[in-house]
Hints:
Layout: E1 2-3, E2 6-14, H1 18-25, E3 32-34, E4 46-48, H2 56-69, H3 85-124, H4 133-137, E5 142-150, H5 151-155, E6 168-173, E7 177-185, H6 189-198, E8 202-203, H7 213-246, H8 249-272, E9 277-279, E10 284-292, H9 296-303, E11 310-314, E12 328-329, H10 338-344, H11 355-369, H12 373-390, H13 396-413, H14 424-434, H15 450-480, H16 484-489, H17 494-511, H18 520-535, H19 537-545, H20 555-578, H21 581-601, H22 607-644, H23 657-664
Antiparallel strand pairs: 1-12, 2-10, 2-11, 3-10, 4-9, 5-7, 5-8, 6-7, 9-10
Helix pairs in contact: 2-3, 2-8, 3-7, 8-23, 11-13, 11-22, 12-13, 15-17, 15-20, 15-21, 15-22, 17-18, 21-22
Amino acid sequence: MAITKMKLLRVAGDMADLDRAIEICCENGEFHIDQAMSYFSDKRELMAISEENPYNACLTKLHDLIAGARLKVMPPGDDKKEFDIEEITNYVDTLSEKLNNYSATYQQLTADIENCSRSIELLGHFSDFGLNLEEVFSCKFVKIRFGRMPEESFDKLKYYSDNPYIVAFPCSVDRDYVWGFYCAPEDKIAEADRIFHSLYWERLWVPSAAGTPEEAISEISVRKVMLEAQREELDAQKAALWEKEKGDDLQYIVRISEYLAYVSEKKAKFDLRRNAVKYSKTSVFVLLGWLPEEECGELFARLDKIDGLYCTLEVPESDMSESPPVKLKNRKLFKPFEFFVEMYGLPSYSEVDPTPFVAMMYFLVFGMMFSDVGQGLVLSLFSWFVLWKKMKMPLGKPIALCGISSTFFGFVFGSVFGFEHWLNPFWEWFGSKTGIVFHEVKPINLENPDTVQTLILSAVGIGAFLVACAILMSIYSKLKQRKLALALFDQNGVVGLVFYCALLAGIVGEVLFKIHMLTIPYIILLIVVPLVLLYFKELLIEHFEGTHHKKPEKMGEYLMQSFFELFEVVLNYASNTISFLRIGAFILIHAGMMKVVFTLAEMTSGAAYVIIVILGNIIIMGLEALLVGIQSLRLVFYEMFSRFFDGSGRAYKPIKLGERLSSKK
């Protein structure tokens, strides 16, 4: 239940040592590098390092070569090799130039082939047009327009029968269009264009060709075949180039993989330079980053090997412009539940890590609501081997643990795949061995109507206990953040805890145990006084912290607003507590749904009975696992987290260049 203590490392030195300093800091993957400029209030003498990365072009070409050759790159080995970057650049540039020449020619051939296909398709619509295309296009005094128009528009041409120039000559008809042409003298073509355009005529540019459309199609088809043959020959030449270049495939893949790893690491290192700043009048750089306290000594020893570097460690302070990154540190049992905390947001560096609290609460609440020995075991095994091991889903681990909780509470309720009496012999044996004999054979018998009231009251009691624990967590968190006024007077502080616990204790004592607790002194000291303090909490907090309070313009409005805020606080206490009724409700819903399954099964016999029971269990397991998981999260997030958790922390993301490369691939 802790957040790893961090220290700020400040490294300064000559620009010539910047790359080496970055390499050492990021060597072991413990250094969280930050943008140094944000840590300086006076930036007048500072300038950002924004040089263009010289490795970008080479890396892009390498990726293009790998994609073009369809190579499967091998992961980098442990032994890092050094290469001459100029040698790699020359190799990549030479090979890329050859391949680019092939690509340019290939693209041009492909475009020409597509043009031929479009021309053949277009001329096919005018194959019945017997005139010579060359003669048609060479006419000086008559203009011709090829195109198409909707069939209903073609029928409307009859309304222009008095105009001898508005005539369309159809060549072919398909499902939607009439294909053909119209013509008009040069001085009348503009009017004809306007009228045909109003009838949705689509002009088509027929390719210039000699002879009839049939002859033009034949000529273009021959050219298309020639172009396709040239493209196939180009493919063969390109394949031959790759075969000659690759030689021994394995050796070539190893070499290209090493080139890629080397250039990628060089690029990544150079990109990290942008996080540092440089003094404008000197060649001195400053690099800043965070690392865990226990790693400081080892990194210092490595940086000491470079002469001229000046390194300091700083403890985080509350007035820092950037808060330290957060690295959660939990025991192995609690660590899977960090997934739920990170869904809501990381705690800030000065907050309390709620992971253990979330783990215990989610583990118990989920198990109580999904209480069945058989279904719990199935859920646990499925989550572990399918969701986690096979699908690598982070959700798999915590749900697998929650399945164990479901199994445990399944024993308490005596349910195995919905069979409520299978565990009776076990509890009888347990009683004979321990001397503990249960009135209902098993600890909790949901078939007994008297159990329902106890179950509901127990759920509310669990909720009240967890809400009180959340308020205690809030007090501890505020004290840790040195917010003493909030820890005392907030609704999730000492005053709120006293009011909540006193009110609950008084009601429970009066109603359940018939103890007269709500006496006048008790009410005044433990209920009324805390309410008054909560009513004036803003004034008290501001006075306690020494901040200036602006006097409200209208005291009546201020008092009314404070009253409704207090009413909302009390209402939240009640709603948060009652919300835990869903625990008892889901326990009863599970039993009720299984009862429906067995009612349906008992209407049949033999194999049908078994099938209904199995299918019913599968459906209920899937449905309840989803609903219970969501409801448990709701209880965690809305009833608990809102009291003590801010979630404004930023993740600790140390850089390790090797891991950075592998993640990119």
